[in-house]
What we know:
Blueprint: E1 35-39, E2 42-50, E3 59-61, E4 67-75, E5 81-87, E6 91-97, E7 101-102, E8 107-110, E9 124-134, E10 138-139, E11 143-150, E12 154-161, E13 211-215, E14 221-226, E15 231-236, E16 242-246, E17 253-258, E18 267-269, E19 275-280, E20 285-289, E21 296-301, E22 306-312, E23 317-322, E24 327-332, E25 338-343, E26 351-353, E27 363-367, E28 370-374, E29 385-386, E30 395-397, E31 404-407, E32 414-420, E33 427-434, E34 441-445, E35 450-454, E36 458-463, E37 469-474, H1 476-481, E38 489-494, E39 498-503, E40 506-513
Parallel strand pairs: 8-9
Antiparallel strand pairs: 1-2, 2-4, 3-10, 4-8, 4-9, 5-7, 5-11, 6-9, 11-12, 13-40, 14-15, 15-16, 16-17, 18-19, 19-20, 20-21, 22-23, 23-24, 24-25, 26-27, 27-28, 28-29, 30-31, 31-32, 32-33, 34-35, 35-36, 36-37, 38-39, 39-40
Amino acid sequence: xxxxxxxxxxxxxxxxxxxxxxxxxxxxxxxxxxxxxxxxxxxxxxxxxxxxxxxxxxxxxxxxxxxxxxxxxxxxxxxxxxxxxxxxxxxxxxxxxxxxxxxxxxxxxxxxxxxxxxxxxxxxxxxxxxxxxxxxxxxxxxxxxxxxxxxxxxxxxxxxxxxxxxxxxxxxxxxxxxxxxxxxxxxxxxxxxxxxxxxxxxxxxxxxxxxxxxxxxxxxxxxxxxxxxxxxxxxxxxxxxxxxxxxxxxxxxxxxxxxxxxxxxxxxxxxxxxxxxxxxxxxxxxxxxxxxxxxxxxxxxxxxxxxxxxxxxxxxxxxxxxxxxxxxxxxxxxxxxxxxxxxxxxxxxxxxxxxxxxxxxxxxxxxxxxxxxxxxxxxxxxxxxxxxxxxxxxxxxxxxxxxxxxxxxxxxxxxxxxxxxxxxxxxxxxxxxxxxxxxxxxxxxxxxxxxxxxxxxxxxxxxxxxxxxxxxxxxxxxxxxxxxxxxxxxxxxxxxxxxxxxxxxxxxxxxxxx
Length: 514
């Protein structure tokens, strides 16, 4: 039997007819609300690792213990769905206690012990979500990845905060007329403003827990996330050209290196040690930098005028393409020993890309006229080309599948999986997904094994291989609120917890929570 009860709806406004989501007025929001996201017709809001006891140290759950999750899960569609499992890399197991069926326009409420009396909805089923046999401590102030898997809408991955009882979760006061607020109707990202008179000023602003703006010292381009030093690396052209290491929390430049005369990009090396590879066309070399200090630690030859570089960590091979797009050179970056030199006809806007996990000398040449796959550096047969209008910003090697890549044709809304088979088969597109908006950037991410596509308004998370949409996060409203509504995205760096978007000609970074 399904038990009915009322439940607080935190973080987002729920619509009973049509049911879309948008940022809510704060007087409908529980203070300190958790993570939120959506997949298909399912919205997950107010999700966190719940904890009831006093915090005497940072550790709130010991290894081997069971952690309780809190979340509100809403089926906004017209078809039933079901939460089939939860999982986390920090837990040996997980349990769903209760009936996790989601009928259309109904809600699951997990982990609420005392519900703030802000707004209630009918059709709510209480359940318990438990992470069992914890493999590591759960600590207050940190984020922990949890995957919610649904029978119809597939999987949603979110980083959950830990509920902190030292900062009690309280409800904002009711509106001045004393009547409970109703359910508000608004399109995504266009929630109505709260009433002019609200008793508590702390409840008067609209907030977003998914998108943050970070002010930096100068506009950044070609950003790369460095996991070792936990920092954002990027090129800066304002003033003397340089490569910088940026603190991802404060925006402060922590280290820099002169990049005057350097090529168009740089690449991150992870084997046998973390290094930054920065091409130097005039010297026909690539300089190797320590990613934490950006101090020079070595140099390797890289063929004539290397302008753009890519790295195969599995084979310790560095690829470089000349500025005129006529030659690709490969060299062992640990020894400087040349591995190949291949003549290509690609033009000055071409770049070279490769899969870090490959062990042969295969690579992609990406040019405005299309993408060419060059197998093992050379082939007696013509190298297969996918002849579509293309920008290198919308091309990313498929880290999960050898000989493949994810891309979006210039000016289209479709992300495609491009696969290279046997030479006679050429290049094929076995999977494609239309996102409904022009795709401006595509980036594959590790270790989450997701593809991130950026449109003018959203960051869309897609599953490796299938290209099923896992989540959508709208970021443009945050830019409008900061007076940056027309800013274009310059580059994308997939970090451990955030997707970082840099802006053209603007000293800001958009941090979109994964």
